[in-house]
Specification:
Layout: E1 4-7, H1 12-25, E2 30-34, H2 42-45, E3 48-51, H3 57-66, E4 71-74, H4 80-85, H5 87-108, E5 111-113, E6 116-117, H6 141-160, E7 164-165, E8 167-169, E9 171-173, H7 186-197, E10 199-202, E11 210-214, H8 215-227, E12 239-240, E13 244-246, H9 248-256, E14 263-266, H10 270-277, H11 286-292, H12 300-317
Parallel strand pairs: 1-2, 1-4, 2-3, 4-5, 5-7, 6-8, 8-12, 9-11, 10-14
Antiparallel strand pairs: 11-13
The structure holds 2-amino-3-ketobutyric acid (AKB).
Amino acid sequence: MKKVLITGSLGQIGSELAERLRKDLGVDNVIASDIRKPENNKTVEGGIFETLDVTDYEAYLAIAKKYEVDTIVHLAALLSATAEARPAFAWGLNMGGLMNALEVAREMDALFFAPSSIAAFGPNSPADNTPQDTIMRPTTMYGVTKVAGELLEDYYHTKYGVDTRSVRFPGLISYKVEPGGGTTDYAVDIYYEALKNKSYKSFIDKGTYMDMMYMDDAIDAIVDLLNADPERLEHRNSFNITAMSFDPEEIAASIKKFIPDFEMGYEVDPVRQGIANSWPNSIDASCAKKEWDFNPKFDLDKMTEEMLKQLSKKFADEGIDTKVSF
Ligand code: AKB
């Protein structure tokens, strides 16, 4: 991995991955792209940035060729709740974009990464310690595109020899860029509200367990998997990875350790609750540990402390009033 094209670079993962790879590889070796180009944006202004609609194959290929990239990280996609609201559009973007990305990777002989998700599992998958290889019959459009995407990436590997690699991300928690349209987003929103109002109304019900991970561990996972020795990879698309599994009561209890008068309430959203109910409670990441030494560093309390500290700083810098500061 020497010169990387990232799509969906303004999103929650893309913005942090672009920053990390610009440090690791040098600013001239990272081409960040997204469908929009906002002003006063760190990712846009921090290095090379191109406007790219991933459903436009010719434009995708032209940018890859212009910079002679050797690696493609394809992140442009809709998340679960948004995809459920617009299923046909989600199929077009998630699958059309991925197909174009794989064709560009084939043409450029590029190393390839695109994320899958815990959403690739469904209600028939074992819910606890869900194995790497098991039944996968998701009931959401997002999940359908994730399973289809995993199969397509395997197909490009076996048929054309494209070096495709992927992980099944759990909910990702970060403070720099907010996620949008996901089911696990409550576990990010809660930290914002804890600082602003010392209270939160969760759209996911108590007792609903889902896998989660702090963004630093997610970025390390992408970089480590892209750098992994291919000889060690028995799996490719996609590896189960997780750092923790909790329900809303447990994340609230963790916040209370730092903000004792924090109050948790519930206003359950039936759509996102239904999606969460179809996903595993916790997945087994042992294959990722064995095949490329996946080793997350953040547990729930360490993540809570870091989120509250960093968000508090961010709010202070932006002049936003909070009820608590760290
Ligand atoms: C979502 O909630 O849609 C995502 C995911 C788990 O893939 N965060």
